[in-house]
Amino acid sequence: MYKKLISFIAVLGLLLFVSLYSMITGSIEISLRELITGLFTGTNENVEIIKDLRLPRIIIALFAGACLSVSGVLLQAVLRNPLAEPGIIGVSSGAGFVSIVMITFFPTLYFYTPLFSFIGGAAAFLLVYLFAWKSGLDPLRMILIGVAINALFTGLSQLLSAQNASSLMSGISVDASTLTMKTWDDVGIIVLYGTIGLLLSLLLYAWCNHLGLKDKTLRNLGFQVNRARFTISVVAVLLASIATAIAGMFTFVGLLVPHIGRVLVGNDHKVLIPFSALAGALLIVTADTLGRTIMAPIEIPASIIMAVIGGPFLIFLLRKSDRIYGN
Amino acid sequence: MEIKDITFAYQDKVVRLHGIETGITPGKITTILGPNGSGKSTLLGVLTNNLAPQKGKVILDGKVIKQYKPKELAKKLGVVHQQNSAPSGMTVEKLVYYGRLPHKQAFTQHGDKDAEKVAWALERTGLIEKRHAPLDNLSGGQQQRAWIAMALAQDTPYLFLDEPTANLDIFYQYEILELVKELCKEEGLTIVMVLHDINQAVQYSHEIIAMKNGRIISHGNPRDIVTRQLMQDVYGVNVVVKDDPELGMYIVPIGI
């Protein structure tokens, strides 16, 4: 019980600290007091610049991390597969591909990018589900098909971006995310759809827990397994797509964060979902802050930083704990 | 429960049940017996609405089971499957609360009635002291009782058990069978189970359904139907059937 509480407090504290630190650090450095007074009075020029350039980026990093992590939790529950993750099984690359197509050919529809990326993500997920289904979902076959679908969409995206390398590719990059050049319009989109997705996922915690039992057991309890699976999948794809549409590709975060969450707060989705949202937000905002400060003025993409710190940390936690997932 | 002309095949099109026609007597223990591949678990799957037959229907309390709403059916029949799994860290009590799912409205909390039924199910299965223990820490026999407790908490008149004694030591096998007997006698449950052991079936069942190759060979009181000839027909095993005034009826296989 204490472990859960401490984990939550620690993540919240770190989240607040890193977010504030991120706001005052970078090419323009100010003190925390300047920042706060500046935000309220609107007279400090530096604070105005930070508000225009740095704050959107931080908010987007927070939401992208939360959305991708929760998407990972939901997919792992739906597919009963500890390796399921929007990046690995192709949902993110499907979403990214369709957004790139839309932006390349119909740049005026920019505001609808999340919608198109949702369609792309859903299509990728459906393909994985259909090809992997053979009187039940075999975890290994599913991951392999997911990897194949992911490779396909990543390849298609790279093809397209190689073809028009200099065009309007501001929003989406194919294999790494830098989170630069974000505007308050982007923030509006990710906050709106992200909040909806995150709230829906909180409502679905009981269904996610139920899916820990076998289908036949659930059916004999009068639980409509397929309806629950479908609903949870839609929310998972929505979350992953919105994050990809605005922040680009972040593989691995949907795998890393839920597993850290399981070790720290357990398998109950009532706790795991909110915890993963916070921890995912923390992870990406940290990665992005480090990425733009440690080798300034060169920016290292947040996804690269995340992989470099996240990988060893996951191994460390898994070695310490034998509770991985499920049964 | 009436079973009318059930024909069933999986996707491979091999017919596993051929026009099964029978009934389950309320308030009794019925055991389905038969060799591997005889269709006994398939029949149990059809009776519990887990498998949809290509032909025929199962009628429960005057209504075809396919026409029940999922929750309504789950208030009528509880099932303990052969292989079960629960997420790690699941406690006995949490698992048993799952039995209350059909009685619960979405987005509501469990009430007093639920707590009462869960306590009763735990008590009946002798798991009160283990209620807060994680399932993974229990013995095989205790785990099996926990799954039975979950089905009991469902508060259904019918209870189906698919090989409830499989993979258990003999002590736990009899513990489960004694529990089944008590549940039938004291709580008035109608019980349908699949067993492998003929002597256990004879000892604990009011009725036996003997199956082979997807057909019912015989159905009735064990004393009437279990004969040397039936064992030869169903299992291809040569047996001696004895009736002892103290032990009751028992069967000793002597060869093939």
Straight-line distance between termini of chain B: 36 Å
- SS strand fraction of chain B: 25-35%
Q: CATH first level of chain A: which class?
A: Mainly Alpha
Number of domains of chain B: 1
Query: Percent helix among the residues of chain B?
Result: 25-40%
At the fold tier of CATH, the topology name of chain A is ABC transporter involved in vitamin B12 uptake, BtuC
In the CATH hierarchy, what is the architecture of chain B at level 2? 3-Layer(aba) Sandwich
Radius of gyration of chain A, in Å, reads: 20 Å
> How many distinct folded domains of chain A?
1
Q: How many β-strand stretches of chain A?
A: 0
What is the C-level CATH assignment of chain B?
Alpha Beta
CATH topology term of chain B? Rossmann fold
Name the CATH homologous superfamily of chain A: ABC transporter involved in vitamin B12 uptake, BtuC
Kindly report the greatest chain-chain contact and the residue count on each side.
A-B, 21 and 29 residues
Largest sheet geometry of chain A: none
Give the overall form of chain B. globular
Which second-level CATH architecture of chain A applies? Orthogonal Bundle
* SSE run of chain A: HHHHHHHHHHHHH
* Average pLDDT of chain B: 91
